[in-house]
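Design request, tokens follow.
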């Protein structure tokens, strides 16, 4: 209980107090939370962050599903090596991934030079480049999350369906996919939350549209506005917790 109070309850209470306090920055009036929700630019940063995270999470879950099934249910040589390759991007920080995107798709990137495609120059700084950078480390995260859940699927249920005369597509449709759904929801929740709070990649690449983690950094280090930064952090935390709660609750059902 003491650990929970010290590591979660007290910091969260302090964050709420700062978010509901008035700004100490000159020229900024009002409480931090009202200034985030009442300012069009900050609202756009919040909704852009949520929209990008939803898109990345959905694409990650759909793309990782075949690999997750292969790692969880398959028995082939090199499976451990493949799992290690999926885990490798998770060891890289967001700043490193952002610079990798710049090196490949920046104004002087390798791919535009090799392919002689001028239209690719600077694409790292657009929505597509940012989404690809997020997918670089979210697809492995979703794959490893789903693998652990799919490995626990009871083979006896699949065999029972086959014994009762179900065809292969019926086993997949009525038995296997419903068993996969909780794992997919869990992977969505994890990748959404990780993308929503991702900072390093956004700091390097999000130059053409606002994202709330970057605006939080600028409020805290640029204008020294603790109230506004705390409000942004609180909103990100609330959205992430709500999504994790919803995906976890439906998964248990």
């Amino acid at each position: 209980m003491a650990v929970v109070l010290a590591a979660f309850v007290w910091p969260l209470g302090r964050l709420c107090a700062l978010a509901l306090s008035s700004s100490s920055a000159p020229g900024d009036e009002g409480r931090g939370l009202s200034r985030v929700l009442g300012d069009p630019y900050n609202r756009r940063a919040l909704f852009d962050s949520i929209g990008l995270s939803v898109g990345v999470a959905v694409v990650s879950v759909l793309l990782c599903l075949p690999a997750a099934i292969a790692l969880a249910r398959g028995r082939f040589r090199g499976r451990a090596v493949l799992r290690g390759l999926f885990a490798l991007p998770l060891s890289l920080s967001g700043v490193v991934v952002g610079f990798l995107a710049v090196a490949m798709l920046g104004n002087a990137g390798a791919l535009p030079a090799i392919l002689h495609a001028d239209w690719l120059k600077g694409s790292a700084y657009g929505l597509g480049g940012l989404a690809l950078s997020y997918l670089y480390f979210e697809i492995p995260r979703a794959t490893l999350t789903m693998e652990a859940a799919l490995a626990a699927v009871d083979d006896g249920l699949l065999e029972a369906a086959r014994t009762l005369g179900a065809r292969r597509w019926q086993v997949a449709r009525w038995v296997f996919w419903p068993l996969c759904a909780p794992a997919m929801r869990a992977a969505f929740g994890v990748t959404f939350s990780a993308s929503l709070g991702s900072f390093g990649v956004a700091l390097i690449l999000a130059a053409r549209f606002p994202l709330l983690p970057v605006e939080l950094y600028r409020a805290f280090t640029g204008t020294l506005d603790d109230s506004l930064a705390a409000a942004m952090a609180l909103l990100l935390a609330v959205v992430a917790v709500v999504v994790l709660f919803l995906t976890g609750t439906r998964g248990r059902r």
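Comment from the thread starter after seeing the answer: thanks! The two ends are 28 Å apart (CA to CA).
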